């Protein structure tokens, strides 16, 4: 395997196969470029499972130690220092870089002669840059320093490109998002649902500013202590004031199968219905096979997925009145043999009445940025020192709490905001990144580990190096000395 999968020929995620087409003879007209841009979006397909594996399972939301200890997520859950050989780590690296490769190819081939209509050409460029920024942002948060490919490179050239400082990777991310804000349309017609908009680019850039402003932990990780809370707030206020989004009063409906692309969705990953195998695997991946075997109408149930139980700490954080718990959590079940399972798992994206071809094919989109998130990021920016008032913060948090059926609170602190975000976004893959961004990951996890580690497989405490993951071993061995492993692994 070459560095970053730059010579990968895996095209199964393309929405329409290119057959024997190559970059040399394919990019001839607008239809070809639309198909190619769809191929960049297609690399988002594994993201929901990845966020469950590398963020939720890593965090204090999930205790993911399996009965045998040999599942791919076990060493992620257990903070093993041998993760460089883990298939989940390799998947994150390879698929993100494949998305970057596809974006770079579109950007290289795009010009006026092949896409003469300026508006469409701008859209394609904006989408490619938005998605490249998104993939690089994930890489920075998972691995810290990564090789920087701003153009298409040949495999031989890739072997000369070392990892770049995090600040340099962020420079490309922010430049791409600023260009995307300029080039992307504010909205699309019905046929363009799910495509990136200028509003999505602004919201993502705000999250980048917040992440850059987080603590560094003394490592080459996602936080640079950049103090860019004011920049984030400007973008967030623009999305809130001028964007086409709005408050959805019923929490469950945000994730309803018949209510996709509702006003709370700023950007999501689109999955198809119709039993074509183009749905998301996430609902079936988060739940155990024994649960689905007990439900009539679920096609071809299998028992290959073992439960990753939700932590007692998360379950106890929900008060009885909080309606979000019932939407988010499946608290036990009875299997086909009458055995009672008392452990809990995530069910937020599950509708048992709408399966596809099997329990790994669900026609529900996965949100990456919600309007509720935009509001709560505004509260975060204000609490971190951007212009604003305590009343604005309290009002935002109390909107969220009122929808959840909870009483209002006053004088919200960063700690209170972090806890409210935990309950609001549980199962959406944000928790690890937010613990890191708020500067709470070491303290929170070190308090949590001794309480939850029933099988005694975790370390007594984690250290700063655990904030990011190791570089996959396959990348380290491509060319000796090209990359150095992240400290601690």
Automatic annotation (TrEMBL):
Gene3D superfamilies membership: 1.25.40.390
Major subcellular location class: membrane
Keyword field: Cell outer membrane, Membrane, Signal
SusD-like N-terminal domain sequence ranges: 28-210
Keyword Signal included in the entry's annotation: yes
InterPro entries hit by this protein: SusD-like_N, SusD_RagB_dom, TPR-like_helical_dom_sf
Entry's localization field: Cell outer membrane
Residue ranges annotated for the RagB/SusD domain, each copy included: 337-489
Family: Belongs to the SusD family.
Protein name as catalogued: RagB/SusD family nutrient uptake outer membrane protein
Upper taxonomic lineage: Bacteria, Pseudomonadati, Bacteroidota, Cytophagia, Cytophagales
């Amino acid at each position: 395997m070459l560095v970053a999968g730059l010579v990968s020929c895996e095209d199964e995620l393309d929405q329409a196969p290119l057959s024997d087409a190559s970059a040399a003879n394919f990019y001839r007209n607008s239809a070809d470029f639309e198909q190619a841009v769809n191929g960049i979006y297609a690399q988002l397909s594994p993201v929901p499972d990845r966020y469950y594996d590398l963020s939720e399972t890593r965090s204090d939301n999930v205790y993911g130690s399996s009965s045998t200890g040999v599942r791919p997520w076990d060493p992620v859950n257990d903070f093993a220092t041998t993760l460089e050989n883990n298939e989940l780590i390799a998947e994150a690296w390879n698929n993100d870089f494949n998305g970057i490769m596809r974006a770079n190819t579109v950007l290289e081939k795009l010009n006026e002669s092949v896409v003469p209509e300026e508006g469409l050409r701008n859209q394609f460029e904006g989408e490619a840059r938005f998605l490249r920024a998104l993939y690089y942002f994930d890489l920075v948060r998972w691995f810290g320093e990564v090789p920087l490919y701003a153009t298409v490179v040949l495999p031989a050239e890739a072997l000369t490109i070392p990892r770049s400082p995090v600040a340099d990777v962020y420079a490309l991310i922010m430049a791409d998002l600023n260009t995307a804000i300029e080039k992307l349309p504010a909205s699309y017609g019905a046929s363009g649902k799910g495509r990136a908009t200028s509003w999505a680019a602004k919201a993502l850039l705000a999250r980048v500013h917040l992440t850059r402003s987080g603590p560094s932990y003394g490592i080459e990780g996602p936080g640079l202590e950049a103090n860019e809370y004011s920049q984030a707030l400007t973008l967030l206020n623009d999305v809130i004031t001028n964007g086409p989004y709005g408050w959805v009063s019923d929490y469950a409906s945000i994730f309803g199968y018949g209510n996709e692309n509702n006003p709370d969705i700023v950007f999501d990953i689109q999955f198809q219905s119709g039993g074509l195998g183009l749905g998301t695997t996430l609902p079936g991946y988060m739940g155990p096979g024994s649960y689905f075997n007990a439900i009539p109408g679920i096609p071809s149930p299998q028992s290959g997925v073992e439960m990753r139980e939700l932590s007692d700490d998360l379950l106890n954080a929900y008060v009885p009145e909080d309606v979000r718990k019932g939407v988010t959590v499946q608290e036990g079940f009875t299997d086909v043999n009458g055995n009672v399972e008392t452990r809990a798992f995530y069910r937020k994206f599950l509708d048992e009445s709408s399966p596809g071809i099997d329990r790994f094919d669900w026609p529900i989109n996965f949100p990456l940025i919600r309007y509720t998130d935009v509001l709560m990021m505004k509260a975060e920016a204000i609490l971190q020192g951007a212009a604003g008032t305590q009343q604005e913060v309290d009002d935002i948090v109390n909107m969220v709490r009122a929808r959840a059926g909870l009483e209002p609170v006053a004088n919200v602190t960063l700690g209170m905001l972090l806890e409210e975000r935990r309950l609001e976004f549980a199962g959406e893959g944000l928790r690890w990144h937010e613990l890191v961004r708020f500067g709470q990951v070491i303290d929170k996890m070190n308090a949590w580990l001794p309480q939850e580690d029933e099988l005694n497989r975790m370390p007594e405490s984690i250290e700063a190096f655990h904030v990011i993951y190791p570089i996959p071993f396959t990348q380290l061995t491509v060319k000796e000395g090209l990359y150095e492993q992240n400290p601690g692994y």
